[in-house]
Amino acid sequence: MEALLIVDVQNDFLPGGALAVTEGDKIIPIINKLQEKFDFIIATQDWHPADHKSFAANHTGKKPGEVIKLGGTDQMLWPVHCVQESEGAEFHAALDRSKWKKVFRKGLNPLVDSYSGFFDNKKKEDTGLTAFLHENGITDVYVTGLAADYCVKFTVLDALKEGFDTYLIKDATKAVNLSPNDYDNALKEMNKSGAEVLLSQAVSF
Where does the Isochorismatase-like domain lie (predicted)? Predict the structure, then answer.
C-alpha cells in the first residue's frame, strides 16, 4: 500500500517566512493535486522550542550559516524558525489537510536537531513514523515537501533504511540551496541510495 508523505510545508519555509525556500509555495498546488491519488496521507511538522540550540540567536556572536559542535556533532545554525505555537510553524493555509491521517512533529528536543521525519539527527529519538506506517500496511512511501536538500533528503534516506520502497516527487519539492548545486546533489544522493526520482504526473496506481 502507498502513502504520500508531506514534509514541513510550513509558513516559515515559504516566501515571507523566517527560513524561506525560494518558490517553495509553487509546490503546494502540485501536492494538493497529488493528494487526490492517495488514500493514505501523512505529514511532518518542524516544532521547535524557542531555546533550540540549532538557532544562531541562542549562541552569542553566532550567525545563521555557521557550523558549531552540538553534542559532539556538527550543527548548522539556522534563523529562529517553526517555534511551537507560532504562525511560522503552522502549515500554509492553501495546503489541503482534509485527508491527512496524522502529523508527526519533530525537533522538539532543544539539544538536537531533527531533519528527518523518522528520527532526530543522532538517531536516538524516534518519531513513531516507522511503526505507524507498518501498522497501516504501508510498503511504498512517496515524499514531497521542503526542503529537498535537508528535511526531505534525510526523510527519504531514512525511509529507505527502514525498508520502504521510496519515491521522491521532484516537482513537489524545492531546496534551500545554501550552495548552488545542493538541490542537484541531494537528488543524486537520494537516487544513488535507492530512491526512485519521478515527476508528479508519473504517479499512478
Answer: 3-200
